Each structure stands twice: as C-alpha cells, then as structure tokens.
Amino acid sequence: MTVNASTAPTGPSAQTGLGVIVPYDMALDREMWRWAPDDVTLFFTRTPYSPLAVTVEMAEHVADTEAVRASTRDLMAVSPAVYAYGCTSGSFVRGVRGERQLVAAMCDAGAPAAVTTSGALLESLKHLDATRVAIATPYDPDVTERLRLFLHEAGVGVVGSSHLGLTADIWKVPYTRTAELVTRADTAEADAVVVSCTNLPTYDVIASLEEQLGKPVVSANQATMWAALRAVGRRAVGPGQRLLAPGPGSVSSAPGPSTTTSTERYVH
C-alpha cells in the first residue's frame, strides 16, 4: 500500500523528555504523567530491588549514589532534557548534603539538568514564600523525623505533623485517608502543608484540600513535576493547584530551553 504524502497525518509532534528515577516499589507512574503537558514524555527507570520495608534503611538503600548514576546512564539513549530523582525519603534521609549528592550523581552521569523530590519541595516552598509548614507522611515515626530534620536544616520550620505508620503498600492509601492525614497535620501557624512520599496518591485531592484549609498543599509528586518541568520551560498541569498557578516570574508552557543550569537552581 502506497501512502499519499499529501494526505498523510502530520507529526509526530516534537517531545521533550523527562527522565524519572524512582524506587523499585514505585506504583504511581500514571499519577506523575497527569502533571505532564502533551509535549513532554516521561521515561521511567527504577533502582535495584531489595526486600526491605519502607523504613530509614530502605530510604538509604534507594539513595545509593552509584545506583542513581547507573539509572541516569540507563536513560541516556532517549536523551531526556532533565532528570528527576522521584523519591522523597531517599532524597531527605541523609540531609541537605545527601540531596546535593544525588543531584551531583545525576549530573556527573550526564544529566543536562537534575532535580530531586526533596529539593523540589524546598524550591516550591520558597516559590510560595512558605517558611513554616505542617508535614503529612505515610511513614513510620523514624522516617517522618528525618523529614523534619531535613526541613529544619534547610531553614523551614515544622509546626505540625501527622503520619500513618505504614511500611508497605503506601500506593494503596485511599484519598479519604490522605485527606484526613493532611487535615490532622495542619495548624494555624503553618504557611503550607507538605505531603511526603511519591508513592502516596494526591493529584485529585490537592485543590479541594487547599480550598478547605485556605493554604497551599504541596505534594511530593506535584513538586517533583513542577520543578523538573520548570527547569525546561514547561508548566505542570494541575487545575486549581496553587503551586501551579500562573504568577510573576512563572514560565510559559510553550517549548523552550531553560536558561538556568541544574547546578545553579537545584543544588541547595
């Protein structure tokens, strides 16, 4: 069969690649896609499997910089414009220095730009002028405490906290339970609520919780996608979500290279 060039469909359209490195137990690839505009393609890879519960030990395991370098190289063939290390606990468990080391590992392996989830949370709080936050996590108390320490080290005060105490199957938590977790964490002193864990579904509850609480609710996957897309001149898609609202200095959703290097923006 001969295809008539004059009647053939145009395209495919040009795409910008976003390389996403996630822990082996990540189950929310589809949720992260929901923040992506049509001209962005996500390329996922996972850290090596280990039979560990979601604890401090596991967070340290998935934050191994050599594994992150290898994962970065695994995606090189499809030329992502930016890389995201999509794990909150893995990027806060060793403090601010540990977060910087993960960014450096991706850049050393060839990433043209790189973000981590915890670094993206800090960047989003700065963007929102939030210096005091409540934290809502699905973790056990030890992992939750590591998040508090990370934020404190970065100059963000924690004025409220709640956690679920889970060590497995976090991706199965229903929205109703997540909403209860967030409202329980919030306090009047908090400028925003940070919802940790890239394996905790949040997309459909952020806007309604923000309306209910009267303040920004920033989730791990939302912040990761916002920061990664912002690095390459794109805007994340999330109707009604305050972090994503256009404002002074916001980027266009039109294609265009970032003018800021990964080191300048994302190494805190």
In short:
By secondary structure, the chain is α/β, with parallel strands linked by helices. 38% of the residues lie in helices and 15% in strands. The protein has a single domain, classed as Rossmann fold.
Q: Would you kindly provide a written description of the structure presented here, covering whatever features stand out?
A:
With 268 residues, the chain is α/β, with parallel strands linked by helices. The protein has one domain (16-244): Rossmann fold. The protein has helices at residues 29-34, 56-62, 65-74, 88-92, 95-108, 117-127, 141-153, 175-185, 206-213, 220-231, 262-266; strands at residues 16-22, 40-46, 82-85, 114-116, 132-137, 157-163, 192-195, 217-219. The strands form 2 sheets. A 4-stranded parallel sheet has the order 2-1-3-4, sandwiched between helices. The protein has a 4-stranded parallel sheet with strand order 6-5-7-8. Strand 7 (192-195), helix 9 (206-213) and strand 8 (217-219) form a beta-alpha-beta unit. Helix 3 (65-74) packs parallel to helix 5 (95-108) and helix 6 (117-127) crosses helix 10 (220-231). The radius of gyration is 18 Å and the shape is globular. The chain starts with 15 loop residues before the first strand and ends with a helix.
